[in-house]
Amino acid sequence: MPERDTISWTAMIDGYVQAAQFKEALEMFREMQYSNVRADEFTMVSVITACAQLGALEMGEWVRVYMRRQGIEMDVFVGNALIDMYSKCGSVERALEVFKEMHSRDKFTWTAIILGLAVNGHGEEAIDMFHRMIRVSEAPDEVTFIGVLTACTHAGLVDKGREFFLSMIHSYKIAPNLVHYGCIIDLLGRAGKITEALETIDQMPMTPNATILGTLLAACRVHGNLDVGELVAQHLLELDPDNSMVYVLLSNMYAKSNRWEDVRRLRQSIMEKGIKKEPGCSLIEMNGMIHEFVAGDRSHPMSNEIYSKLGNIITDLKNVGYFPDVTEAFVEVAEEEKQKVIYWHSEKLAIAFALLSSEPNTVIRIVKNLRMCLDCHNAIKLISGLYGREVVVRDRTRFHHFRHGFCSCKDY
């Protein structure tokens, strides 16, 4: 194009966001700035959305400064995007600040803050926010109820969750979809009500998908219900025969029950079928740049320093009683090799990099593409206490806020 205006650049940035190419979206925004084309509110929504998906809090903060300098108004759409961004970066306090600053709010504003509070483990506050929404006569929609049910799940409020689910159907005439049922299954599963969760799946008016069955299987692993776990795993493998998560969780349950022959049989099946586990990938922002780590990868320019630092971290952990949990290691190798695989998981590499590259009081924020394994969860808890760092990990299923040797999630 001989000429590119604000609309041209915004269309490209938004196109990258819609295609889930978030790093490319931010690169396009930088090119737009180099071209001296002024952004507008629509550009900002797309850029902030990209920051949210990448967990790029520093970039998101810079965007707010840019808006003030350029005189770009924070309308309701930008405000909603900022609430979502701060929530997805694990900074719910800043999300609440934006919410309070907004002069105009719509149902998406209320839904964004309810979801943000819920996924960050502030269940009671999310429910209070829902009641505030009703008091100002803003009608909730199906997404709002996903936030409310998620809040009940994180707070362990089983009875309230059931009440909200029935209220959604009877009072607000909203037909539950698969996501709502997934929230209820998660709520019951985390509370250890495995039988009721199974009965709920049987009573659903639609066929359960792999996500819902996977949620119940994960609950079976947490609560040690191998009988239901085997049944659910069988259904899952009928839906998706190459689903590596099923093999990992089932193998973990067999190992905890000392059924080592079943562990060997399962891992032999994995090898024969050639099933590969999706590689773990962690993103971390440092000085406005997104750094990507893959389990066992050495492509980062600071790779030697990172692995050396990680070795020191493992030594420090062992000195306070850490022993690697290899029950979820998806490889058929000697115990020592399994431990190495566990040590080199992507979130551990990201943390080693952060400890090398950031100031002592900086919060470490990581976005993980998969569910975090038990070993990484236990290790990061210890790291947060040993090094006095707050660590926030957003994995495929939830947020984990680690502080002073503890984690916000209670059922991992």
From TrEMBL:
The keyword Nucleotide-binding does not apply. PPR repeats lie at residues 5-39, 75-105, 106-140, 243-277. InterPro entries: DYW_dom, E2_motif, E_motif, PPR_At4g14850-like_plant, PPR_rpt, TPR-like_helical_dom_sf. It comes from the Eukaryota. Gene3D superfamilies: Tetratricopeptide repeat domain. Residues 321-412 form the DYW domain. Pfam families: DYW_deaminase, E_motif, Eplus_motif, PPR, PPR_2. Keywords: Repeat, Transit peptide. This is DYW domain-containing protein.
